[in-house]
Amino acid sequence: MARYGMVIDLQKCTGCGACGIACKTENNTQNYSNGRYYNWADYLSLTIGTFPNTKVVTLPTLCNHCSDAPCVEACPVNPKAMFKSDEGVTLHNAERCIGCQRCIIACPYSDKNIETAGVQYSVISYNPDDEYTHSFWRNKTEWIPNCTSSGFEVSQKAGAIPPNMNEFNHPDYEAVRSSGIVEKCMLCHHRITKGELPYCVEVCPSQARIFGDFDDQNSEVSRLIKMYPAKRLKNNKGEFLSEDEPGTKPNVYYIRDYNNPILSVVDKTNLTTKAKMEQHIKIYPNPVDFFTNIQCIIPKDNNYSLKIFNSSGQVVQVLLDDEFLMKGTVDFKFIAGNLASGTYICVLSCSDFVESQNIVVSH
């Protein structure tokens, strides 16, 4: 037996959304429809503090794959449609699901309709039995008549619904789910059983998501929750469990804080201190039109990489690739003239730390 889960390092997270895009393309999830978000990897956007001392916080979310999963307990069929795998992953068998939605009611991280519930996301979503899934790609209405294609035309040309369908095989769930059942994050079980990482972990440009086995005391996830005070979500409203509150024993842990100065994950500095930590990346100007300057403050002699990622986690420019730099300040010029407008992530990394900063390209 194992207890697979995830640690999310909020201090590394840039809020770029690459995890959400990657999950959507890997698992062929639907677009928003009638109060239901089919985003297995999602994120909360919260404003904290009191004006004028406020800041926006991004909190990545996914199924917590709870050890005491109430969705499994609530599932009425036998054998259960919602069940725990040998690795501790909360899985869903599509053939056994009767669409009763009791799992959604039981799960503290889910709601049938996020709009009426006043929340931003739901871990489990229902595919209504009176409509086809991926209805956008079946719609024959052109956005601009006689100018743009309809969703139906695009899917017909691609030969798949959705047009960018990622095909994979799994004994319990299909690559594209059908109507009349629920669906949720499976922790990319079709990938991890082949020795691959969940796709949201693989594409994260700042390596903020760490996957592993919490029952293995030598795993990186176990090491991180020992090194840093860890917290777990209580519900889908952004509230955290107190230290003496077990909840459903979620297996997604959050460490450190979003938008705080970077501290190395191997640095054993007392985390309760409020001393200001030095940032190693300075970008000016930002937003960028055609080029900008990236100043890297190198804390010690080591091999470093400096790469620019797009919001899908793809490398668009390599400024430094595992090259030796001496302690000091090094300046780089980032040419953005051939890039589309949008948000990019500048990542400086070495064996001791990973730091990232957003770059906004605006032509």
What would your notes on this structure say?
The protein has 363 residues and is of the alpha+beta class. It folds into 2 domains: 4-203, no CATH class; 281-361, Immunoglobulin-like, CATH 2.60.40.1930. Helix content is 13%, strand content 28%. The chain has a 4-stranded mixed beta sheet. β16 and β17 form a beta hairpin. The protein is globular, with a radius of gyration of 22 Å. The N and C termini lie far apart (53 Å). Residues 261-277 have low confidence and may be disordered.
* Number of DSSP E strands: 17
Strand content: 25-35%
Structural class category: alpha+beta
Q: What about the largest sheet?
A: 4 strands, mixed
List keywords for this structure.
single chain; 363 residues; alpha+beta; Immunoglobulin-like; 2 domains; 4-stranded mixed β-sheet; 4-stranded antiparallel β-sheet; 8 helices; 17 strands; 13% helix
In terms of topology, how is this protein built?
Layout lengths: L3 E6 L8 H10 L14 E9 L2 E9 L8 H5 L7 E3 L5 E3 L9 H5 L7 H4 L7 E2 L24 H8 L23 E2 L5 H4 L6 H5 L5 E5 L6 H8 L2 E2 L20 E4 L25 E4 L6 E8 L3 E8 L5 E11 L2 E8 L6 E8 L4 E8 L2
Describe the structure in brief.
The protein has eight helices and 17 strands. It is an alpha+beta fold and 363 residues long.
